[in-house]
Every structure is written in C-alpha cells, then in structure tokens.
Amino acid sequence: MKKRTGSLGGRHGISLMFAIVGLCFVIFIAGCHGTAGNGAGDGIEAEDDGAAADDGKLSVICTLFPQYDFARYIGKGQADVTLLLSPGQEAHMYDPTPADMEAISDCDVFIYTGDAMEGWAAQIVDSLDDSVYVLDLSQYVTLREEEEDGHDHEEEHHHHGAYDPHYWLDMTNAAAMAQAIGDVLSNLDEGHSREYAERTGEYVGRLLDLDQAFMDTVHNSPRKDIVFGGRFAYSYFINRYGLEYETVYHTCSAESDPGVTDMIRVIDYIDQHDNSCIFYEELSSGNVAKTIARDANIDTAVFTTGHNVTKDEFDRGITFIDLMNDNLELLKHVLAQ
Hints:
Layout: H1 10-30, E1 58-62, H2 65-74, E2 79-83, H3 98-106, E3 109-112, H4 121-127, E4 133-136, E5 144-145, E6 163-164, H5 171-188, H6 193-220, E7 225-228, H7 235-241, E8 244-247, H8 260-273, E9 277-280, H9 287-296, E10 299-302, H10 311-315, H11 320-335
Parallel strand pairs: 1-2, 1-3, 3-4, 7-8, 9-10
Antiparallel strand pairs: 5-6
C-alpha cells in the first residue's frame, strides 16, 4: 500500500510451415496483448459510476476485473466502483488517458494489481495526494518468479519483469485480495463496516469453495495435464492445483513468439499424451492454438485468466466466480478424457 498505508520434418513439418506463414504477422503484433475487444482504449467515460461520487459513498477505481468484481460485491450499496479498463480491452495494451488519471486523482480508493502488471501505475501513485487511498494488492500475496514454471526454456523474455502478476488464478490469493479490499473499505467507512465485513466473508467463502473444487477435480481425475496454445499466464493456477502442462509460449510476453519447433513440440506432446483440447486466453484470436488443434485434430477452448471481460459479459453482470466456474467445468471435461 501507499498513501495512507503503509523441429521441421515428419508429418507435421510441412503443414506447419504453411501455417506459420499465415500466422507470422498476427503473432508479431498479438503478444501477451491478445486482441483488444469492444471499447479498447476508451478509458473512463463520463457516465461511469465511481469516477467522482458526490453522494457520500466511497468512490473506488480498480484497474482489472478481478478486484473490480470483488469491490463491487463487497461495496454494494455503500461504494461506487469503477473498472478502469474498458470492457473488452486487453490489460497489457492499456495506457491511462488524461481522463483516467484525473479520475484516479479524484477518487477515494485506487486498487491495482501491482507494479509487475501495471508498470504505468507507479508514476500516477507517486503523484497522488493523501486524499487517495492506494491499495497495491500484490502486497497481500507471495509473488512467483516467472522462471518458476518448471520448464527449461532458452531466451526467456519477461514482459512483466521478474514476477508473474496473474496471482488471482490461485483462489487463495483471490481470497486474500477480497479480504484486503473489504478491510480497507471497512476502515475508511466505519459506519458501514458491518455490511462490508459480511459481504467480504461471503465472497471469501465462495472463493475458498472454488479453491476446494479445483483441488478435488484434479485429485479425482484420471489425468493431471493440460495444454496451452496461448500466452502463458497460468503459473499460479498450475502450481496451486498440482497440474502438469505443456505450452507453446514460455511466458506471457510479446517477445517470446513461438517458432515451428515450439509448435511441433506441443503437437508431439499431444500425440504422446492423447490430450483432447488445447487452451488459449480470453480476448485473443487463439490463432496459434487453433493451428496446433487442426494439425493434432483436437478441440480448442478459452481458459480465461479473468483479467477482463467482453462488453457483452460486462453488461450481463458476469462475475469473477462465473468465470472461474467456467474454467472449472472445462478442467473437469479435459481431465476426464
């Protein structure tokens, strides 16, 4: 916290050569960014609820969807909560607009994931006065170094620096995030502390139930491995739930584009292990995963990191719990194959 806180060849080689030509330009620009969806780059709009509340409620701005969803549930009725990213926008493509920076300076609470995810935030945080409570949620979890993914890769590139910032995919970390948000709102608005505490307990309980469901699913399934064909942002999930994996991307980095050798390695793994599906991340084209799936004759599916949602999902009121339950059902299906 700050501010008031303390190989080519074989049956796969020729087809992949043609596929790579079609993918090269897409891969070059996609990066960990993926493809921005609806409203990318719009920033905070005037009609957003929490940019500057004048109704006595706490105004809260959250950078990513997980903490936004936690805060809007915990603060329901007592806090006006705004998502800084436009729905459909990929977080790694985001740069704050002047309107975003003004809104942050006018809010009561600014909640972000940490410098490993939002490198732009440090300068804004340093410019804020003491009227804005800044909550850096990375202070409440143990960060994992990206090298801890258990794979020995050459030429690793770390778009986020030394640490993987996608820590909310471990549900115990998500619970710690929700608890921290609830504690801060309770401390800043003591008159509604009981309501905050009750809703925090409810949400933390649901996250811990999800944690146990993921644990039980892996423990009770005949297989323990999954395959990723998108940017790899799942080290916390893999580590927490005892999964094995293969991935075409080594990190969530715009610089670590897969070559033909990487794709053949993953296809060979699928052939040897008889996997039925390859995952890729939300808000992306999934072109690499789809190319591998066509060659390996398996399915593709989006396994969401939950960092943001589409405009349609946002308008429907989808929650972080909903997103993780979708992941849970996918996991049950592929581990049963």
